[in-house]
Protein: Cleavage and polyadenylation specificity factor subunit 3
Amino acid sequence: MAEDIMTITPLGSGQEVGRSCHVLEFRGLTILLDCGIHPGYDGLNGLPFLDRLEPDQIDVVLITHFHLDHAASLPYLTERTNFKGRIFMTHPTKAVLRLLLGDYLRLLSMKNAKPEDVLYTEADLNSCLNKVELIDYHTTVTMDGAGLSFYALNAGHVLGACMYFLEVGGRSILYTGDYSMEDDRHLMAAEIPHQKPDLLITESTYGVQVHASRAEREARFTGTVERVVTRGGRCLIPVFALGRAQELLLILDEYWQSHPHLQDIPIWYASKLASRALRVYQTYANMMNARIRAQMDVSNPFQFQYISNLKSIDVNSFDDSGPSVVFASPGMLQSGVSRQLFDRWASNPNNGVLIAGYAVEHTLAKEIMAQPKEVVTLEGRRQPLNCLVDYVSFSAHVDFVQNRSFIQKVAPKHIVLVHGQKDEMGRLKSALMLQYKAWPEAKRPTITMPPNLQEVKLRFARRRSAKVMGRLAEQQNEAATLTAGQGVQGILVTHQFHSKIVAPEDLATYTPLRVGTIASKLHVPFAGSLVTLQVFLTEMFAGITVETTSDATIFSLDQLVQVVVGHNKQTSQQVQPVANGTAIVEWDANPQGDVLADAVISLILHAQSSAASVRMTSQPCRHYRADDPENNNNNSESNKRAKTRTDTISSRLRFIYSTLKDQFETVEAVYEGNQGVYEIQTDCGFLPADASGTKEESDKKDILKCTVTVLFDDNDVTGDRAHVAVESRDEQLANHVRDCIQTLAQATQPIPLTAHTSNDLNTIKDSKLDLVMKSEPMETISSSVTIKSEHSE
Structure:
């Protein structure tokens, strides 16, 4: 059975978190799932391993959400390589991505990054985003000619985050990206698809860790912030400008409203994107949960009462003499305002840093979670780390319980784990394998956790099935019973690896195809006799109809092929019309019509050049003499018909002789008028009936004889009907001769022109010579048989 191989290759986030990018190759298609950077590396080192593939071979790129580790390499791919494919993402993802990547470029300039570390420019970013195509949740996109269709599902991770459910080559794939199964203050939980995919590519960020309850995490988060500010310290909360920041702002603003003693302590949101970010969230409030949608009808929930926006902040002149809370980006403390404030506040034990999201390896946020005694500032000097460092997860990634439950509900046949550190991913794989251990081995899904650039190859049996639709399906339903192997006749249409069988009349209903015909016409030079042409056509094909008008003679072959021969202007001396020099052959272009047309054209050419046609049309003189009795019209036509019949019978008697001569050892023929007598002698190799069986006698061979008499019917003007008599003492020889004559009669019949004449062929076969020969006494059995021969000898 034919197999298809699906290849999945992580170009990033394979046994790591960061630069999510995965290549899916199947049935000639190349699909790129996400295209992010690694926040722990600079420049080209942070890119996915794009040199693993040729960018111009990528058919489509699907971006799940706007986080940098899932989308920040996209402008590099589209503008700095020969990428020619299509790009899809949701509306909010594109809107926020324009802001985030613009801010990312601004931070690089603030950091005085090396030129080689700047992967693209603002112009590249704008050009890239202009190429993006937008997709709504639950809207299926079909790429014509590629055999790929996909739709987006809500992933719950951040505003506009989605999963992609793909169908390609008859197989289905679900790619989750980052997803969350919890309802929070502004987003809904991820959806679960109704279809069961063949392959699930899912995140494993938290491995087998289990999150505390949301109420417990919120209490710990607000309690830590309150503890820091009430002792006079400054609390730094590093976040990305968009995403989890809005959730934390909602939590803290609500907490301040319910605690009046904290309302004199300022909360700052230090981001140039603050106002624009809030406008984006207001625009796409319809994609948030019911709580936010209900609040939008009354007031804007993102217009905070106790939180102020800082469009610009000069850390050196920032007044931080009293307690305060500052949300600052970026979330990994690599550069920007959050890093500057951290360097300024890290040595004071009254201050605190609260990490509220997932911290990626090789970043300062991850480093300080280990509580080192010293850290290195942006200027390169070492300073003590005395401030409080705490971690409360609001990263909107699934934990082990949520991930396991989702996988069980989706029920894939194959699982590929991505987006997780090697140790956490390995623990998750072991836990899942332990869970499936109780299942029958044939039903257990395969589970892999490939590192970057390691291919995962999945083999799928190629499906060969087709749906019967329309009136064909109705006919099958009306049938009392359907048996295995029962045939269905229709047109097989395959589109994007899905096949259907429909009646020709239903093509326009169930497919984009239409039924049409091509009429062919060919002009063939013809200077022969119309009578000769008719003889040639009727000898070759059965069911020829002839229509003669004043202008033309029309030969029709069962409405498949038509031959139109125009007439010359007829003189008073001419009895039969004369061809005007051209025969027009017309037919509908199709395999059957083309073959028949070729045969007809050959007959037209043969009818004016073969020896038989010359003999049939030859005459001593073409000069007309009124006193010549041979030119009497009635006598002339009668004589011609008689001569033609005599020639036909003579030709067919000789044809029978040549056939018998080819089959048997000795044949002698005697012709008398309409009759031919053939005496066959053959050494058949059998002992005489009275042989004693000795070696000497076994050498004596019996020479057997058979006499065949063929008499053409005097009453048959065409010379087609003949009476055949076979005389022989040996039944086996008589059977051989009978079969030879019968096969000859069948083979020389005109060709039926339509498919429905198969029953007629059986009738013709049954009506042929049917002889039962007996050795004693000698019997003669006669039968009527139609025999035709070739025109030429």
